[in-house]
Amino acid sequence: REEMPRATLNLRLDLRIPPDYVPETHQRLMLYKRISQLRDGAEADAVLAEIRDRYGAPPPAVLGLVSYAGLRLRAEALGITQVDAVGPALHARFNDRTPLRPEALVELVRGLPGAALTPQGILRTRLPEGEEPLAALTRLLSALETTGASVGAGL
Fold first, then answer.
1. Backbone phi, then psi, for 9, in 5-degree steps?
2. Which of these, 14, 24, 59, 70, is most buried using a 10 Å CB contact count?
3. How far apart are alpha carbons 80 and 148 in whole angstroms?
4. Comparing C-alpha atoms, which of 131, 123, 130 is closest to residue 147?
């Protein structure tokens, strides 16, 4: 199976490992590298368990970083190449090899208030009032995953 292109998530988030949690710079850099190279949820769980064992309970920033990596993997599996938080909206760009059936995607867009799908393969959806981009993307990816993500013609 051919690998999907790497997704870029521009969610305007502070994704870092605090220096007071992992004081050694080299160790922080190695953790960033490992997290950026995660390939599935099992790896993410293993890395989080190792982080917990070595440094104690991870702060929200570290949990957010690992969640971000998991969302990137989920987006890639759906054929999403880029997600941008733009004002009060998310813009998700699909590549032409998305496994989502176009009919299922159109049906999903019809059910999302304020959502639109452009001819260029960009799904635009509004962020509910007060919802953080990470939570909104989690919700959007879950909806996309349940739309009937069977392999079919691309967008």
1. -115, 110
2. 70
3. 16
4. 123
